[in-house]
Design goal:
This protein is α/β, with parallel strands linked by helices. The chain is built from eleven helices and 13 strands.
Length: about 350
């Protein structure tokens, strides 16, 4: 059953044609992606601009995005003393079989988040070497704050699953590249668990097979896939509050993150943690072997030519060597609250 819903949003822009169209496109793309709305489902969009924006009609941006059948109208926003300047607002009416009016995700981006602080989003970038506790900390923080943990590995698995489901040979790079424009991935945090959606379908369990894991390892080597997924990760961070971990999140993926954390720990402590993980799984491996692997991985990550591991200039370094998970989570959440 399709629902008719109205989605609101706002963004600020400079009074130039280029800025107005660019910012309007960013806002529309955020609304469509956050709500999984297709262009053909849009019925009407009303745009308003404050009187200091008159260099271009924002509706032009909608047409350039391919929104050619919906009714579009541009109006001047009512002037109120002390109101936000240089602001573009939208009211988008559409049909959806996925989203209801209650679950619609309204988008107030950049400076416009001041209009609806209750809907404001944040992004937390966690970088660091292998074994520093990034995934564990990221998941705990996402759970504490009821926000989305961006599992980048799950995104590559979703690309692999899409190819498998449609009989696309994922070992042929050109075929996978052609399929990218038809792949939409969303991640949510529901009932204390992360859920992964591929084109609106929950594939959280389907991506956890050995066959999908093998496909993910292959597609992750393709440059266009990596570029496309980084762009998806950035867009997800525009439309919802996220916690993302990796090795280049603060430097490449989310250079404008609300807060950047660089987690560290001594190589011996990280090797000890890995040893405990292996022992818990009944696997036998020596501490010395793990220590050598950790140090070799550090060198490889820090010296690779593409997106090497390094601390962002504005990142806060947190040494986890002698801290518990609870202490680290509490400290980082405290730093995040100071930023908001």
């Amino acid at each position: 059953m399709n629902n008719t819903i109205a989605i609101r949003g706002a963004i600020t822009a400079e009074n130039t044609r280029e800025s107005i169209l660019c910012q309007t496109k960013a806002l529309l793309e955020a609304v469509l992606m956050a709500n999984q709305v297709k262009i053909e489902e849009i019925i009407q969009i009303t745009f308003t601009c404050t009187k200091d924006l008159d260099a271009a009609y924002p509706a032009i941006a909608a047409r350039e995005l391919g929104i050619t059948e919906a009714a579009l109208m541009c109006m001047q926003e009512m002037e109120v003393v002390g109101s936000l300047e240089h602001c573009i607002r939208i009211a988008l009416i559409c049909t959806s079989s996925i989203v209801t009016q209650k679950t619609a995700r309204h988008q107030y981006l950049g400076e416009a988040c001041k209009l609806r602080p209750d809907l404001a989003t944040f992004s937390l970038a966690l970088d660091g070497p292998a074994g520093a506790g990034k995934s564990t900390i990221a998941k705990r923080i996402a759970g504490e704050l009821s926000c989305t943990y961006i599992d980048t590995g799950a995104m590559y698995r979703s690309v692999g699953l899409y190819c498998i489901q449609r009989g696309i040979d994922y070992t042929i790079e050109a075929l996978v590249n052609e399929a990218l424009e038809d792949i939409h991935i969303d991640l949510t945090y529901e009932n204390a668990n992360q859920r992964i959606y591929l084109n609106g379908e929950d594939v959280s369990e389907a991506i956890r097979t050995q066959e999908v894991a093998a496909s993910a390892s292959k597609v992750a080597t393709y440059e266009k896939v990596r570029i496309a997924l980084v762009e998806m990760q950035r867009k997800l961070a525009q439309t919802k509050s996220v916690v993302m971990d990796g090795r280049d999140i603060g430097t490449v993926v989310l250079p404008n993150a609300t807060l950047k954390i660089f987690l560290t720990a001594s190589s011996s402590e990280r090797a000890k943690r890995r040893l405990m993980e292996y022992q818990a799984k009944g696997m036998e491996v020596s501490f010395e072997t793990l220590l050598e692997e950790i140090e070799a991985r550090d060198y490889q990550d820090m010296n690779r030519s593409v997106s090497p591991l390094k601390k962002a200039e504005d990142a806060v370094e947190v040494d986890t060597t002698s801290l518990t998970v609870e202490q680290i989570v509490e400290h980082i959440i405290g730093l995040l609250k100071q930023k908001q």
